[in-house]
Amino acid sequence: MSLSLPRHDVADLGLHQAGARRVEWAARSMPALRRIFERFERERPLEGLRIAACMHVTAETANLLRALRAGGAEVALAASNPLSTQDDTAAALVAEYGVMVHARSGMDPATYARNLATVLECRPHLLLDDGCDLVNLAHLERPELLAETVGGCEQTTTGVIRLRQMSAEGMLRVPMVAVNDTATKRMFDNRYGTGQSTIDGIMRATNALLAGRTVVVAGFGYCGRGLAERARGMGARVVVTEVDPVKALDAAMQGYTVLPMAEAAPVGDVFVTVTGNRDVIRAEHLAVLKDGAVLANSGHFDVEIDLPALESLAVDVRREVRPQADEYVLEDGRRLVLLAEGRLVNLGAAEGHPAAVMDMSFAVQALTVAWLAGNHADLAPGVVEVPAEIDTEVARLELRALGVRIDDLTPAQEDYLSSWRA
């Protein structure tokens, strides 16, 4: 443990050794980020920069922050979800890796907001966000801090939606890179990561058999596709609900039953929302759910299931029937089970995405931060796309780690693709 620790508010610094073991275990499955760490250590592309981050405090995130520290940055971290913080990882980030951390598992909303404000006090040059809460706070309550902020990154669909709204209204004052919108992030993190980790969270919280049961997936974006695939692979009957005609058609063509939520509600056994919108499961749906129906959310915020409506329908005090599984008893005796308080079930009831998946997402994030550090002067405020070469470089790093080789274009093929006269 370092004798001079950065400013922090964590549950127990004594957990730092256990946290370091967890971080090192995750690092074994993050070869692309390890190579970037080594490059950053040599080149120091982030020397002198201050970074404020709002992210899930997990072992995978810790490895990203280690790479940023190796590149020369000072880093302050707040949690992006009250339930996802690993207290041992938080302790290790402070004591072993020199990161300012303000995060505790299970903190209340007031503490969550206070921690976001605290990390902004580092007067950041760069913002790393997961859901746009940090950017939102800086713009609405601490705009004076943006004088030194040159840009940032957003890694969730929900956050990018909010950023685009800010930009459309002329309110976004810095360039924010939509890391979420890269092919590696959407295809692997959203599809494979969310699909597997959501099922993991549901299984840990309920120990329920999915085979033969009806799983309703609300939303058929990349996250919903991955979740539907994994649920079907475990033998579940999968029903998809959608508002987008193209995505609904895609689900139908893949063989899923597509229904409005009003028709899916009476037949479903397990419901998972992954839309990025609010009130997807409302009072009229809750009123017709089966006894024992399980409700879970894998969208970023806890607004996809109408929790006030669930509270108002319950006649018995909510009780925890299993860790991260709360039972609500309705007037007619039906019992509805809510997982992880309606927050991200894959992080509230499990450990989030596998490290191998986050390796790609955080490799893109690390390279994008370095690119921002060197190119921010050429960028205007607004939502910025990740340079295509970064996405390609990360894919190549992952292929190399997997021992997979691919073809190169021949000169004749390159000429053919670059000339319409051929």
General description of the model:
This protein has 422 residues and is an alpha/beta fold. The protein folds into two domains: 8-185 and 353-402, Adenosylhomocysteinase-like (Rossmann fold); 191-348, NAD(P)-binding Rossmann-like Domain (Rossmann fold). Helix content is 44%, strand content 16%. The chain is built from 17 helices and 16 strands. The strands form two sheets. Strands 1-4-3-2-5-6-7-16 form an eight-stranded parallel beta sheet, sandwiched between helices. Helix 3 (59-70) links the parallel strand 2 and strand 3 (74-79). Helix 1 (16-27) crosses helix 4, helix 3 packs parallel to helix 15 and helix 15 (355-375) packs antiparallel against helix 16 (388-402). It is globular, with a radius of gyration of 22 Å. The mean pLDDT is 95.
Keywords:
alpha/beta, Rossmann fold, eight-stranded parallel β-sheet, eight-stranded mixed β-sheet, 16 strands, 16% strand
Question: What is the class of the largest domain in the CATH system?
Answer: Alpha Beta
Specify the helix fraction band: 40-55%
**What proportion of the residues form beta strands (DSSP E)?**
15-25%
* Annotated CATH homologous superfamily of the largest domain: Adenosylhomocysteinase-like
- Classify the secondary structure makeup into a structural class: alpha/beta
Q: Indicate the low-confidence ranges by residue numbers.
A: none
Compute the number of structural domains: 2
Number of strands: 16
- The strand order across the widest sheet is 1-4-3-2-5-6-7-16
**Large-scale geometry:** globular
Q: How many H/I helical runs?
A: 17
Q: Write down the CATH topology of the largest domain.
A: Rossmann fold
Query: What composes the largest sheet?
Result: 8 strands, parallel
What is the residue-averaged pLDDT?
Answer: 95
Distance between the termini: 64 Å
Instruction: Please tell me the CATH architecture of the largest domain by its name.
Output: 3-Layer(aba) Sandwich
Radius of gyration: 22 Å
Subcellular location: Cytoplasm
EC number: 3.13.2.1
InterPro entries: Adenosylhomocyst_ase-like_sf (IPR042172), Adenosylhomocysteinase-like (IPR000043), Ado_hCys_hydrolase_NAD-bd (IPR015878), NAD(P)-bd_dom_sf (IPR036291), S-Ado-L-homoCys_hydrolase_CS (IPR020082)
Pfam families: AdoHcyase, AdoHcyase_NAD
